Structures are given as C-alpha cells and as structure tokens.
Amino acid sequence: MKTAFSIAALAAVAAAVPAKNNLLALRQAAPEVTDADILNYALTLEHLEDTFYRQALEKFDEAAFTEAGFGETRARIQIVSKDEMTHVSFLTAALKAAGATPVKECTYDFPLDDVETFLATASVLEGVGVSAYLGAAADIMSKNYLTAAGSILTVESRHSAYIRDTIDQVPFPSPFDVPLTLNEVYTLAAPFIVECPSDNPPLPVKAFPTLTASPDNPANITAGTEITLLTPDYIVKPADGSSQIYAAFITVTGPVFT
Questions:
Q1: Alpha helices, DSSP H only, in 137-181?
Q2: Are 39 and 203 in contact (CB under 8 A)?
Q3: d(CA 17, CA 204)
C-alpha cells in the first residue's frame, strides 16, 4: 500500500514531453499570477486537507485506529486536523482583507476504505502541501504573505514527518524538499476533487494528463529500478511523429529525464 501511494505521487508529477527542452519552455510559458491567485491556490489545497481529515475522523473512531495498530495516532491526527482548519480560516481572512474573493470548499472523493489507506493518503497530501508552498514562495510578492506562507510550510513539514514516521516511512527522506509548480501540485490534487462551486474564482492552474504505475512493477522500488508508467485513456505521441518521448521526474536539483 505504501509503495503504491508513493509511486502514484511520483508518477503524477511526471510530465511526458517529446523533448527535454520542452519542460523548460512549458514552465517559462506559465501565466503570471498575483498574490491573490497564490493565496487562493493555497486555500484550495487547505480546503482539501481540512475536509480530508474531518471526514476521516468522522469515519474512524479511536477503536478503529487501535484495531489497525495506531492506538495513539488519532489524538495527534485531531491536532493536524485543527491546524488545517486554522490554515483555512487564516487564508480566507487574508484574502478578504486584501479585497479578494476566497475560494470555497469543493466536493471531494477520498480513499477512506480503512485507517491504513487514510494514513498512506495523508502522507502523500502532506508531502504535496510542503512542495506546494515551497514552489509558490518564489512567486509571492508581499513579504508579509511570504512570511505567512513560510510559517504554514514549516507546520505542514512537521505533519508530513510525523505521518511518515507513523507508517514506517523515513520522516526526513531527503536533504532537500522538492518545490512543485502550481500545475504540478494541482495534478496531484485533481484526482481527489469531484466538483467545485461554480462561483469560485478561477485559478491559473491545469492538471497534466494522468500517469499511473503498472501493476507489474516490482513491489520494492529503489534507485535504478526500471518501472513502467501507463497513460490510461490516451496515447502520448510526439508532435513530429518520430521524436523520443521522455518522462520528467521533478527534483529540487532539476528534472530527471528517462
């Protein structure tokens, strides 16, 4: 289960492009965004996390966590949930104070089959949250907003480390966290979003086509392992019909092409 979720997260940010230079071109062509756009982008993610934790806590009581082998975890998840609720309130108030319209909560579909699946998904969402704030930091113009975003980022990072440790993942897997662009983050969030209110302000984001990991991949993925990525419901073709197709895996030191 843990491997499946980590591979899904990795694959979802892989952009299939016909040439290595195209990824840079796509990033450079990204539309300019305002601080209000970034705050609403952050609020979109916080709404998702807030709802995710509230729904999980409503579904799984203390006995369910204990039966799954996570007896002391629920109380701390309640703290995480309260943090996310506070982030929603803070960002909503900041947008209103700036004269902008804050986005409202969407309708979501989360994998909440059992406590184990919930925690595995939480690990993915918290990791995405860290990368989202880190990636957006360079585009924030206001120093006050940047400081506020930084203070949320550090809390999300603590959430991520705690949940990773709880499910026996390394709590600090790398000396660098990976910054992701708005589109890369939205690609990871989009599968959980069913529908958003029609009067929500539009966001300058779009999801990349979905990539999934083949069920035939090895159970244990390590550096150097060859894996197969699938493109369900569509076929990736180069524009000229003959160029090599690359998958770009995003890292803090730059994309890794394969």
A1: 143-166
A2: no
A3: 21
Name the β-bridge partners of 248. 15, 257
Taking the C-alpha atoms of residue 199 and residue 132, their distance in angstroms, rounded to an integer, is: 24
- Give the CA-trace dihedral at 63, 127, 176, 225, to 10 degrees: 90
What is the C-alpha separation between 258 and 249, in angstroms, rounded?
8
- Tell me: pLDDT of 35 over 80: yes
Higher pLDDT, 75 or 7: 75
Maximal C-alpha separation, the chain? 58
For residue 52, the number of C-alpha atoms closer than 13 Å in the C-beta half-sphere is 27
137 SS3 class: helix
Handedness of CA 140, 144, 149, 153 (dihedral sign): positive
Nearby residues of 219 by Cβ (< 8 Å), 6 or more positions away = 3
3-class SS of residue 191: helix
At 127, which amino acid appears? G
Q: If DSSP codes are grouped into helix, strand and coil, which group holds residue 256?
A: strand
Residue 124: partners with Cβ closer than 8 Å, 6 or more residues away: 5, 6, 8, 9, 188
Provide the token pair at 182.
């708005």
Judged by DSSP in three states, 220 sits in: coil
CA–CA gap between residue 90 and residue 77 (Å, rounded): 20
Q: Under a CB-based contact definition with an 8 Å cutoff, are residues 108 and 191 in contact?
A: no
Q: Are 226 and 8 in contact (CB under 8 A)?
A: no
Of 12-21, 135-144, 205-214, 232-241, the range with the lowest mean pLDDT is 12-21
